[in-house]
Every structure is written in C-alpha cells, then in structure tokens.
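Ticket #4471: structure output looks truncated?

Reporter: J.K.
Steps to reproduce: submitted the chain below (108 residues) through the standard prediction queue, then opened the result file.
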Amino acid sequence: AINPPTPVEKLEAALDHVDMVLVMSVHPGFGGQKFIPDVLSKVEALRGRYGFTKDVEMDGGIDRETVALCARAGANVLVAGTAIYGATDPAGEVGELRRRALAARGDR
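Returned output as attached by the reporter:
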C-alpha cells in the first residue's frame, strides 16, 4: 500500500512479490475525504511503466464522479465507503458505481 505522498517508485522492488497494490486516494484515517486526483498517475505507472498485471486497488473518495477515472487509470478493485453507506439505496449505488467503472473500461 502507498499513501498519496509516497512515490510509486518505492514499490518497484516488491512488485514481483505481491498480488495486489493498494493506492490510497485519500490520507488514511477517516471517511468522507475528497479524492486526490494526483494518485491516478501512480496507477497508470503501475500498469504502464512497470507492467503490473495483478490487482490494483484504490481506496478513498470513490464515488460517481471518481469511479470512472480510477477504472480508466487501471484500478480494478475499488473501495467506496461514504458513497455507498450514505446513499438512500446502498445496493443501487453499488450497481451504479459498478456500471460506471465497467463502462469506463469498455466492459459493457
């Protein structure tokens, strides 16, 4: 796992030994924080420059506005807390987030 200020290069030596990389898209500690868009470049680097093909998870600030950005960058595991638990229809919100992520990746 890497926090927003941690350079993705810090993971390089470990990439052949892990099944997943978690890219935090907020500072850990509490829910409801605003998504930090600069972290998208870390996911893109993992997929592109490093050729990392295993799971890339993003956690923090994932909602209807950010889920497609994360999916397009290459994240395939997305953690949404406030967006789901704050929704009037949590199950419906999960479905909508999933639909938007798949559409962003081109999976219909």
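Triage note (M.O.): checked the attachment and the full token line is present. The helical segments are 40-47, 67-73, 82-85, 90-105.
Status: closed, working as intended.
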